[in-house]
Amino acid sequence: MKNLILTTVLALSFLLTVACAPNPAQIKKVIEENPDILFSAIEKNPEQFLETVNKAARMAREQKEQKMVEEESKKREAEFANPKKPEIQADRAIKGNKDAPITIVEYSDFQCPFCRKGSDTVNQIMQEYGDKVRLVFKHFPIDQIHPRARLASMYMIAISKQSAEKAYEFKNMTFAGQRDLQVGSDDEAAAVMDRWVKKIGGINMSKLKADLKKDSVEELIQADKQEANKFGFTGTPGYLINGVSLKGAYPLSEFKKIIDRHLAKK
Question: Is 94-265 CATH 3.40.50.300?
């Protein structure tokens, strides 16, 4: 396929230099009837043709990215007018001021490197905005490529039944130690997480182990994933900032634009 695309682009480039505004039908006919023209031109000017192809590829990529940015911007404007409404259960673990004017809902996978980057950005937001922002972490493990992410989510949920604060300590510790979860089995991963929990301290391990087995833990993960899909998040990470979405590990400045606009209204 790549060779076909390359050949076609090179043919067009060549024909445009030897013909007076040929139409597509004429170009197609010349290519089919005289393939040696292409081969000869490529052999004589290989660097020029490769430069042309690379430039065209860059332009196509840039145009595609620009189009995606414009589409996301339009959707974001619509969400400011009609924000998404995630469910936040009364017993949900929340980080920060529970009455904060800004709520960030973070849909994330504990083994996703982009989620780790996004988590660092959210932590910066929490520090900078203080009591103006609260965080609700929701679980979106992608089991096909991150086999330990679901187990880490289960641990965080179980810890949150004892302490929301310590649950978020576990969240930060898990993202920081992502590579330690690349082990051979769930038992080995659980042993790693047990060490993290003990390092955090103040968690009843017997209760933690019992809570890990409860159906409500798995049900919460499934509910979070379904909600993420409902809001159009097909990968991780995803964020809702007072109902306005960011899809991906955006830089701090993009979060701040949305937060500051919300705060300005209030």
Answer: no
